[in-house]
Design a protein that fits this description.
The protein contains eight helices and twelve strands. It has a single domain, classed as Metallo-dependent phosphatases (Purple Acid Phosphatase, chain A, domain 2). Strands 3-2-1-11-12-9 form a six-stranded mixed β-sheet. A six-stranded mixed β-sheet has the order 4-5-6-10-7-8. By secondary structure, the chain is of the alpha/beta class. The model has no long low-confidence stretch (mean pLDDT 96). Bound molecules: zinc ion.
Length: 243
């Protein structure tokens, strides 16, 4: 089965459409959360995602805030302004869809899926080998797919000495998966690894392959809509440089 793995779309419809076209035909789509927050297109993104066939979708921290389950005060000023805009803009159907999504760790075959980390599904960032190491005891499958950090990366646990290392990934090249791993497909709509291209991954469940992918999209079109919506300029600027 060929699975499209996406995360952190953040109301960036242009990036999402580009990723879906670039991915081609897939059997399932797994979305690790944060459909809304930051960007100009919350309704377009939620509508497009909820229409995808064979979808498994989790809530991210921005989604949880948009549906009113955590206070906006948990976010910094610029992130909060976008959430206030999204909360007002979201249609009832799109709000109901977000309300129907789980936020807890979800197991799909060999993979555990979660937005933040296995031990703190909404808030913890897995940013380095230390935070990854602390999380391997909190899932039982060979690998765990996480989002939230907006970094396309992979961490490996070496069972012989319990060490955890950051793997070097080759973009647009499939690699064979061997237990145990924590991997992040990167962010579709707001990459933060200094590569502004939209990030995602293709996962092959039978061949146990993972292909981290990047694709260029029309960033200027998204910046224009951010400015038209009077969302914080910072959200427009960061897209061009990937931070
Ligand atoms: Zn996010």
């Amino acid at each position: 089965m060929r699975v499209l793995v996406i995360s952190d779309i953040h109301a960036n419809f242009t990036a999402l459409e580009t990723v879906l076209a670039d991915a081609g035909a897939v059997d399932e789509t797994w979305c690790l959360g944060d459909l809304v927050g930051y960007g100009p297109d919350p309704n377009e993104v939620v509508e497009r995602v909820r229409g995808l066939p064979n979808l498994t979708c989790l809530l991210g921290n921005h989604d949880v805030a948009a549906i009113g389950k955590i206070p906006f005060e948990s976010f910094n000023g610029d992130a909060r302004r976008a959430l206030e805009y999204h909360e007002k803009a979201l249609t009832k159907e799109n709000m109901d869809f977000l309300l129907s999504l789980p936020s807890s760790l979800t197991v799909k075959g060999d993979a555990s899926l979660v937005h933040g980390s296995p031990r703190d599904s909404i808030w913890e960032y897995i940013l380095n080998a230390l935070s990854a190491r602390l999380n391997f005891a909190h899932f039982t499958t060979p690998w765990c797919m996480v989002g939230h950090s907006h970094l396309q990366c992979m961490f490996r646990l070496h069972p012989e000495n319990e060490r955890v290392t950051l793997e070097s990934l080759k973009v647009n090249e499939a690699m064979i998966l061997k237990p145990r791993l924590i991997m992040n497909p990167g962010s579709v709509g707001q990459p933060r690894d200094r590569d502004p291209r939209a990030a995602y991954a293709i996962y092959d469940t039978e061949e146990k392959k993972w292909e981290p992918r990047r694709v260029t999209y029309d960033i200027r079109a998204v910046q224009k809509r951010i400015r038209e919506a009077k969302l914080p300029e910072k959200h427009a600027m960061r897209l061009m440089e990937g931070w």
